[in-house]
Amino acid sequence: MDGKKLAQEVKAELKQRVEELWTSKQIVPRLAVILVGEDPASQVYVRNKRRAAEKIGIKTVDNLLPATVSEADLLDLIYEYNEDPNIHGILVQLPLPAHIDEAKVTHAILPSKDVDGFHPVNMGHLFMNMPHSLPCTPRGIMELLAAYGISPAGKEVVIVGRSNIVGRPMVALMLNADATVTVAHSKTKDLRAVTKRADILVVATGRPEMITGADIKPGAVVIDVGVNRLADGHLVGDVQRQTVEGVASYLTPVPGGVGPMTIAMLMKQTVEFAEKSGQDGY
Ligand SMILES: NC(=O)C1=CN([C@@H]2O[C@H](COP(=O)(O)OP(=O)(O)OC[C@H]3O[C@@H](n4cnc5c(N)ncnc54)[C@H](OP(=O)(O)O)[C@@H]3O)[C@@H](O)[C@H]2O)C=CC1
Ligand SMILES: Nc1nc(=O)c2c([nH]1)NC[C@@H]1CN(c3ccc(C(=O)N[C@@H](CCC(=O)O)C(=O)O)cc3)C=[N+]21
Ligand SMILES: [Mg+2]
Q1: What CATH class is the domain 136-259?
Q2: What residue ranges of the chain have pLDDT lower than 50?
Q3: 25-110 and 136-259 share one CATH topology?
Q4: Candidate list 11, 114, 116, 215, residue with the active-site label
Q5: Locate the Tetrahydrofolate dehydrogenase/cyclohydrolase NAD(P)-binding domain: which residues (predicted)?
Q6: How far apart (Å, rounded) are the C-alpha atoms in residues 256 and 145?
Q7: What 3-state DSSP class applies to 150?
């Protein structure tokens, strides 16, 4: 499944919507990105986001804060963006340094500007199938499946991983799409027995190539969320491509699968918020 190609198509459509927003309302979508510390992987994401935004016509306001920044100063920056009517989306790159409370920061972002969909209000709405903001990675996966004509309705969907960023919101989106959902994690007994049931398997563990061909039902659709940088600089997923390829009907590559879709969905959410600005919010 070619996430890179689909992401290009999504971004081309967004570019048109951004032009229309300017013509009709003289609004430029603006996204504030906050990165704390100098984690090299995070810097790559921030750079990719900035590049995608530039192409579409979204303005990004990048804040690269030192790892030593205080929680109070970080919160103050968020409050400023909450108040600023020209900022439509706020994203704080996770994980944060240990001295900063991630929950406190996530909860400080105004739900109406929460492009990641991580605020408990947005997460709650999502689980009740009344979403305001959709987490980018799971949403990108749903759009990939749709583009390939794969409907989760009535299917056995197994999600490996239960993080707030990927696994949990993925559960909600799959349930909202009428799948029968099973969630596996590090305490799951006999993981293979569980993954082998899946018609659609979503893997988000951060364990390089942990899922192999022996873990898959023949013909399954396999979505690899993992992005693991090996010591030799090589990028691999959580799924072992060589052994899974021959067993699965579809597999998302790493790189070029879920990653580019995540960025495209971040752009989409920002444009949607800009389009809604001035309307009844929260
Ligand atoms: N492509 C993209 O857009 C994105 C990619 N990623 C990538 O996806 C991966 C996962 O990210 P994230 O969800 O943030 O990771 P977390 O570390 O937050 O969560 C990992 C989850 O996997 C579970 N897990 C870990 N080891 C095993 C195991 N051996 N068997 C079964 N379950 C296991 C954990 O279980 P437990 O809860 O019990 O600890 C946990 O729920 C990473 O590689 C990350 O880089 C993440 C976000 C976006
Ligand atoms: N608040 C927050 N929101 C996030 O969405 C978020 C986050 N924090 N912290 C980190 C994870 C990870 N993540 C990725 C996004 C894009 C790629 C991506 O574009 N990957 C490319 C290649 C990247 C490369 O070459 O390194 C690909 O898979 O083809 C990867 C990973 C978003 N995350
Ligand atoms: Mg922390």
Answers
A1: alpha beta
A2: 282
A3: yes
A4: 116
A5: 135-276
A6: 15
A7: coil
- pLDDT given at position 158: 99
Which of 251, 203, 209, 202 lies closest to 230 in space, CA to CA?
A: 209
Q: Is 116 annotated as catalytic?
A: yes
Where do the domains of the chain lie?
A: 25-110, 136-259
**Residues 275, 242: Cα–Cα separation, whole Å:** 43
Whether the model pTM is above 0.90: yes
Residues with CB under 6 A from ligand 1: 137, 160-163, 165-167, 184-188, 191, 204-207, 210, 225-228, 258-259, 262
In terms of CATH architecture, what is 25-110? 3-Layer(aba) Sandwich (3.40)
Contact 247, 257 (CB under 8 A): no
The confidence score (pLDDT) of residue 282 equals: 43
**Closest listed residue to residue 255, CA positions, set 37, 2, 76, 47:** 2
